[in-house]
Amino acid sequence: MMASFFDQFASPSFFGVPLIAVAIALPWVLFPTPPSRWVNNRLITIQTWFINRFTNQLMMPLNVGGHKWALLLASLMVFLITINMLGLLPYTFTPTTQLSLNMGFAVPLWLATVIIGMRNQPTVALGHLLPEGTPIPLIPVLIIIETISLFIRPLALGVRLTANLTAGHLLIQLIATAVFVLLPMMPTVAILTAAVLFLLTLLEVAVAMIQAYVFVLLLSLYLQENV
């Protein structure tokens, strides 16, 4: 029984073709394309307003050099939100529950911010490894600790997104299983459990959006340190 709970996180395949590629490509098909007309419909207007507000909020702490990342970070934010939300639908697969995919996003983007810092301002980038005013005996220890914390950043990005989505999906499946088991024996308890399941689903919708925002926000903070 316990093994079956984790079967939902296995990457499905159809005739030997992994469907994770379809799940990754699907979000871009769902977004409406802005027409050539001057007047847009309500859906495109809301989409444009949301992306503009998010981009302004994200780029506000960054200088002009960091604004080149606006398109990349905004696209990543919309992509992660869409994948996380689609994964809450029944009989769907959530690619962001796979640590390999999240690390594939986190490591290259984190490495790009580090390379930018080393190329543009190497003194400031290396200065983050040693806080100002550190006592001389603690300098070697602090350099080692800060270096380890620097290399843990992409791992923390990927594990945070994976763990939060995996835990939410497991809770939903466990409570849904409890509802089906209790329904013939204790209908009242089953109804109360179903109410808890509904509230948990609403919470998971919020978590799906918040975790995508946190992922991109932390990347922008790493970028802010290096531009």
From TrEMBL:
Alphabetized, the UniProt keywords read: ATP synthesis, CF(0), Hydrogen ion transport, Ion transport, Membrane, Mitochondrion, Mitochondrion inner membrane, Transmembrane, Transmembrane helix, Transport
Give GO MF terms, alphabetically.
proton-transporting ATP synthase activity, rotational mechanism
> Which reaction is this enzyme known to catalyze?
H(+)(in) = H(+)(out)
Matches recorded under PROSITE patterns? ATPASE_A
How does the record classify its membrane topology? Multi-pass membrane protein
Alphabetical list of SUPFAM superfamilies matching this protein: F1F0 ATP synthase subunit A (SSF81336)
TM annotation in the entry: 12-31, 69-89, 101-118, 138-159, 171-199, 205-223
Q: Does the keyword Flavoprotein apply?
A: no
Name the InterPro entries for this protein: ATP_synth_F0_asu, ATP_synth_F0_asu_AS, ATP_synth_F0_asu_bact/mt, F0_ATP_A_sf
Q: Where in the cell is it found?
A: Mitochondrion inner membrane
Give an example GO cellular component term for this record: mitochondrial inner membrane
| Pfam families linked to this entry | ATP-synt_A (PF00119)
Question: What family does the database annotate?
Answer: Belongs to the ATPase A chain family.
* Subunit details: Component of the ATP synthase complex composed at least of ATP5F1A/subunit alpha, ATP5F1B/subunit beta, ATP5MC1/subunit c (homooctomer), MT-ATP6/subunit a, MT-ATP8/subunit 8, ATP5ME/subunit e, ATP5MF/subunit f, ATP5MG/subunit g, ATP5MK/subunit k, ATP5MJ/subunit j, ATP5F1C/subunit gamma, ATP5F1D/subunit delta, ATP5F1E/subunit epsilon, ATP5PF/subunit F6, ATP5PB/subunit b, ATP5PD/subunit d, ATP5PO/subunit OSCP.
What's the protein name? ATP synthase subunit a
Q: Which organism is it from?
A: Opsariichthys bidens
| Classification lineage | Eukaryota, Metazoa, Chordata, Craniata, Vertebrata
